[in-house]
Specification:
The chain is an all-alpha fold. The chain has helices at 3-33, 38-66, 68-87, 94-123, 129-144, 147-175, 199-214, 217-227, 232-257, 262-279, 286-315, 324-352, 355-367.
């Protein structure tokens, strides 16, 4: 692992520590804030994806002129502000602050995602990308493995305001490793959707959509929170145990991605992940949930590492290196609009059919990897 990728992994680890506090517990907070509303807690994800798509369309040229590193620093500060906004929400001001949070959060995502993928493409090498991604993910998990427990303790003691303060502190600290990274700049040539005709782009988007369809852990996390009868601490302890096991697996697994057939790993993972989702139809005890979550986290980590490697290989096809920014833009735009549609369907299923329909949908989505 080169020095730049290591510094970036430290940034990502601290960032995820902060982000996941809001990502997991923020969803639960919104659910409770709007009187146990699934639509508010999960439907906002679809709206955020649409806003995100709008923002990257408007600001993509600015990212290039402003610089990748500076854009990422801006995004981190925006994330901290968005969590602060949400932490101040109550019954009297919830609508206004919820909308303000959603806009700020979506804008922060826009300033973050393309620079993140830009850095990952620059700092990893095709020959060793599997091993590098394994170490990158392991370092990220190492730093953030206690996030759920920390979130549970802070939420139980000081509420969402205390959690927002902890998250803001972690966000600010995460900026420092970025100082050691170059501020790449680029000239975006245009919003050419002709890139969708490239085989590598089609393949990449297909891969990411398949992953998105089965990677709906926010739905499952909300369901688990409800099953644990609203205990922030129990919820946090459960997810922390899963993270500890996941760290060791990620570090070891990354070494084998470069040696094994990646598509075979992906297809095997699809079968296991589908069984994990289908088995969730039958479990409702803390022990069963813990075992299921552990298996799911391990398969998710292996899948994300493999997909990341394939993703960056497809983006960096020989002869297409000068299209990096354009390919990232088209990919992000297409993926997030499709993801918004998937989330909308899942929310409708959860409300009008029930949670089992969501679990079945995700299980079937996992099986689509067999056709990739």
């Amino acid at each position: 692992m080169n020095k730049q990728l290591f510094a970036f992994s430290i940034n990502r680890a601290l960032f995820e520590l902060a982000f996941n506090l809001g990502n997991v517990f923020g969803t639960v907070f919104i659910y409770l804030l709007f009187d146990n509303s699934i639509t508010a807690a999960l439907g906002n994800l679809a709206v955020s994806n649409i806003l995100y798509s709008l923002f990257i369309s408007v600001f993509i040229k600015l990212f290039g002129k402003f610089g990748v590193r500076n854009s990422m620093i801006t995004s981190i500060l925006l994330f901290a502000i968005s969590f602060a906004i949400l932490s101040g929400a109550n019954q009297s001001n919830r609508i206004v602050l919820f909308i303000l949070w959603l806009i700020t959060f979506s804008l922060a995502r826009a300033f973050y995602n393309i620079p993140y993928h830009y850095f990952m493409n620059k700092f990893t090498e095709a020959k060793h990308r599997g091993e590098e991604m394994g170490k990158f993910h392991a370092i990220t998990i190492l730093f953030s493995m206690i996030t759920p427990l920390l979130g549970g303790l802070v939420s139980n003691t000081w509420g969402l305001l205390g959690m927002a303060i902890v998250a803001a502190f972690a966000f600010v600290i995460s900026i420092f490793p970025l100082i050691f990274l170059p501020n790449f700049k680029y000239a975006f040539t245009g919003y050419s959707l002709n890139l969708l005709k490239l085989k590598s782009t089609k393949r990449d988007i297909q891969l990411l959509v398949i992953n998105d369809g089965q990677n709906k852990e926010r739905f499952w996390n909300l369901y688990v929170f409800m099953a644990l009868q609203g205990s922030f601490l129990s919820f946090g302890i459960l997810l922390t145990v899963v993270n500890i096991l996941s760290f060791a697996f990620s570090w070891i697994f990354g070494k084998f991605i470069d040696r094994w057939n990646r598509l075979k790993i992906l297809k095997a993972d699809g079968i296991i992940t589908s069984l994990v989702w289908f088995s969730r139809l039958l479990i409702n005890t803390p022990v069963a949930i813990a075992i299921n979550n552990t298996i799911n986290q391990l398969t998710t980590d292996s899948r994300n590492q493999v997909i990341s490697v394939i993703d960056y290989d497809l983006i960096n096809r020989t002869g297409q290196e000068n299209m990096l920014e354009e390919k990232l833009f088209v990919r992000e735009l297409t993926l997030n609009l499709i993801s918004a549609l998937i989330i909308t369907v899942l929310v409708i299923l959860a409300i009008f059919v029930g949670w089992p329909a969501v679990l079945i949908f995700s299980g079937l989505a996992a099986l689509t990897t067999l056709f990739f």
